[in-house]
User: Fold this.
Amino acid sequence: MRSNLRAMNKGGKKRSNLVTGAFGEDVTARFITARGDEILDRNWRVREGEIDLISLGNDGLFHFIEVKTRSSLAFGHPFEAINKEKAHRMQRLALAWLATHGCFGCEYAIDAAAVLINSDGTHSLEYRGGLL
Assistant:
C-alpha cells in the first residue's frame, strides 16, 4: 500500500489531497466493516455539504462518519479540523440523508475518524463514535 499511495500522489497538490482523503476513507471503511457495520453510502453530497461514510452499525444505529486524513501534524491533529460548526453541519446532513431515505426519526450517531499517514507509508486510525 505504501508505494501505491506515493504513486497516486503524483500530479499536484489538489490531486494529492484528494488521493490522501480517499486513502483515509478506504482505511476507515475497512475498519468499520471489520467491526461488523455495513457501508450504505460513500461521499453522499447535497448542496450543504458531503458525508464521507454512512454505515448501519451492528448496534442498529446509522453512523454518519467524517474522515479527516493528514500526512503530518504540521497543521494539527486531524480531529482539530472538526469544530462545533462542522459537527452541526454533519448533523443537518445526517438528518437530510435520513429524510431522503425514508428513515427520518431513526436513531443515528455522528462519528469521526482521524487517519494519520506516516512518512514511511504506514498509517494509524483513531475513531470516535457518538460526537453528537
